[in-house]
Amino acid sequence: MLTINSHFIRAILRNADQYGVDIHTVLSESGISPEIYQEQEGVVHVDQFVRLVQRAWYWFDDEYWGLSGARCQPGLFALMVRYVQQFDTLGALLNELCRFYNTTRDDAEFSVDFQDDEVIFSVKLSNPERDVDHFLSEFQMVSFHRFFGWICSKRIILDRVTFAYPKPDHSYAYRVLFPCEQVFDQQQNSFVFNKRYLSSSLVRSNSELKSFLKTAPADLLIRPITDDSYTTKIKGMLLEPLRKGDGFPDFNSVASDLCVSPQTLRRKLKMENSNFQEIKDNIRRDLAVDKLVNERLAVSDISSLLGFSESSSFTRAFKQWTGVSPADYRLKVGS
């Protein structure tokens, strides 16, 4: 991921006033403009998002940003990681992680259950009404799932995820956060995977652990994760030629490379709530933001690189994606 929607920033800072946290200070320290923060369809670079998460921890003095009803001392996740590193397998880690949090926290109940060939890892907040945007629930489930995969150095494929709330307006983001079946209005927040992963060894060294904790768990929400969807496969096929300046291959060529007919590929993408144009637009948007923030390329150069015939066309598209022009976006993130 190169960008993340501003919704998640607003969710983190929802209780800022109650905690005496100045939103403008946190945004300024993170390189995020108030205009983009307020823009419903605004996006920020993932580096800005990670900085904001970390700065918000400092200002709230709470690893849960005031969303649980009880302060969580910053550094608890890192302490948990160091504690469970001593165990041999993912199965042993799961039980001890639940014991760790259930012993140290009263604001949530963590559990792991085994049913047939499935492992069900659940997080139940004691005060779910405080997590208005469901961000804390989302963050915990994504963080733990990706931490399990990282420490085993293995992709853990999810079978499904359940949510103890109705489908939210920002559920479009779940396609990346939870690349599997999603079921809402359930008894608990949980993610489910196959038991075969329980015997996976914990393989990360102390030096790898130290490097991981420099940004984790702040970056786990946007840490890349692979899945077997056609959307993800197409993203990989489109990114490389675009980065080389070769433009996008056409849809029929992509279908041919995937060994399916164009009709079948359209149907597969529709089942994933995606389409070819949306994939191209998202790649263009993310690369545009990345090059504006990190490479400081001229707008005309970015326009040409992304395959727009005119800079004005790129500017119109960028305003549709983010709510502001490329020049204004660069100005707002500052240097």
Topology, pairings included?
Blueprint (H helix, E strand, L loop, with lengths): L2 E3 L1 H6 L10 H8 L3 H5 L4 E3 H15 L15 H9 L5 H15 L3 E8 L2 E8 L9 H18 L5 E5 L11 H4 L3 E3 L5 E6 L11 H7 L17 H14 L7 H7 L4 H10 L4 H20 L3 H7 L5 H12 L3 H8 L2
Parallel strand pairs: 5-6
Antiparallel strand pairs: 1-2, 3-4, 4-7, 5-7
Helix pairs in contact: 2-4, 10-13, 13-16, 14-15
Using brief descriptors, characterize the structure shown.
335 residues, alpha+beta, 3 domains, five-stranded mixed sheet, globular
Structure commentary:
- Helix content is 49%, strand content 11%.
- The chain has 16 helices and seven strands.
- It has helices at residues 7-12, 23-30, 34-38, 46-60, 76-84, 90-104, 135-152, 174-177, 206-212, 230-243, 251-257, 262-271, 276-295, 299-305, 311-322, 326-333, and strands at 3-5, 43-45, 108-115, 118-125, 158-162, 181-183, 189-194.
- The chain is globular, with a radius of gyration of 21 Å.
- A five-stranded mixed β-sheet has the order 3-4-7-5-6.
- The protein has three domains: 3-60, no CATH class; 76-212, no CATH class; 230-333, Arc Repressor Mutant, subunit A (Orthogonal Bundle).
- By secondary structure, the chain is of the alpha+beta class.
